[in-house]
Amino acid sequence: MTRAGFVALIGEPNAGKSTLLNRMVGAKVSIVTHKVQTTRARIRGVAIEGEAQIVFVDTPGLFAPKRRLDRAMVAAAWGGAADADIVVLLVEAHRGVTDGVQKILEGLEGIGKSRPVALAINKIDRVKSEVLLGLTRDLNARFPFVETFMISAEKGHGVQVLREWLAGALPEGPWLYPEDQIADLPMRMIAAEMTREKLTLRLHQELPYQLTVETENWEERKDGSAKIDQVIYVIRDGHKGIVLGNKGETIKQVGQAARVEMEEFLGRKVHLFLQVKVRSGWLDEAERYSEMGLDFKDGNA
Hints:
The protein is α/β, with parallel strands linked by helices.
């Protein structure tokens, strides 16, 4: 009998949700950087385990929101959890029960009544086993998790055990996606995320959240290649110079790195053209939010 359903991965920013999703799905779907809060939209990755199809909802990290964009991201995260069949809370082993984790546990009180919530303690290679056992006891005393898993999303330890458990715990029913589909985000958004990741890695000190990338045009060429035009929106003139770099060096390197990744992902040649535009108010434009798969209204204070 086939099984299928949605699994929401929730946790604080940088808990390893995107890394876990990518390892579960076996392809790079959600962007992974060392900056916190880099996942903006609810990106779904699809994994097949035996007769089960597991559809992962990778949510933005849950944190205390300050701006409209933050509030929309947090609303998307809780929305993803409320829509899922199973919720997995990721907690970093070396950080333990932070204030942020405690707030998430309180938020789970309502959501956990109607669906199973599992605990995955991540980055287990960073602490001693007695610390892990203490943390497991502490977290399970605070919330009735149905299962606890010890994993290292980065190294792959324990990930297969979690995957098999999820496959068996999903409801019986037909598969939700064609077998060869790994992400339900439109390719234009995935391509924009790839460029944004490269920018975040290059400019992580200067302006991580004050830029966004949109795929403005996507043209399929007769030779099988794709021509992709993207716009990088920044909020100040000074930021434009940072993105371009000395003699255009920064944007050139970002473009090359993003193009290589797109070609690997699509399995064909890509011609990528990047433009930088100043849009001082993009953080308050509804259109930018829908491009990221977020609801502008969720950002209302």
